Amino acid sequence: MSGTWWVSDAPCAGDWRFTPDDTSADALRSPMTRQLLKVCQDCPYRSRCIGLVLPRASKFDGICGGRLWFNGTVRDECEAAHPDDLIEDGSYIPHGTEAGARAHNRRGEPACPLCREAGRLAQARRRAKRRKRASD
Predict the structure, then answer these.
(1) How far is CA 64 from the centre of its chain?
(2) CA 46 – CA 39 distance, rounded (Å)
(3) What is the pTM of this model?
(4) Torsion of CA 22, 23, 25, 26, to 10 degrees
């Protein structure tokens, strides 16, 4: 994606513990949470992370930008967290949906894998619908 070169350089890159499947409030307050927030402590991309994920707008659950989020609300943060990191520029992309694929397109960036697949499936459904109409 345009402007997201830093994602693969971030200390959390590829670590799914930052966005756990079990996102209950108790699970997010586990002892591991403090360890994960320490990873964010020296991360130079905290504000960019928030700008990409848009945790408030997306009602994010997990760790993003040096903060623990639950339903889009900050529940905890690393010591180095700064209020200026919390600026959410841009509009929310509903990843994994056809609307998400269109949102990436409007931004002029390649769609993420989830949105690309959702767009491909939607296109396949439209083609099947057209074929069905043509055969009737």
Answers:
(1) 9
(2) 11
(3) 0.60
(4) 20
Q: Nearest-CA neighbor of 98 among 82, 111, 83, 80? A: 111
In this prediction, residue 34 carries a pLDDT of 84
CA 24: distance to chain centroid?
18
36's CB contacts (< 8 A; 6+ apart) are: 12, 17, 18, 63
Handedness of CA 36, 40, 42, 44 (dihedral sign): positive
Helix axes 113-135 and 98-107, enclosed angle (nearest 10): 120
Distances (CA, A) of 49 to 118, 119, 122: 23, 24, 29
Q: Tell me the pLDDT tens digit for each residue of 66-79.
A: 999 988 889 888 88
Give the other-Cβ count within 10 Å of 11's Cβ: 14
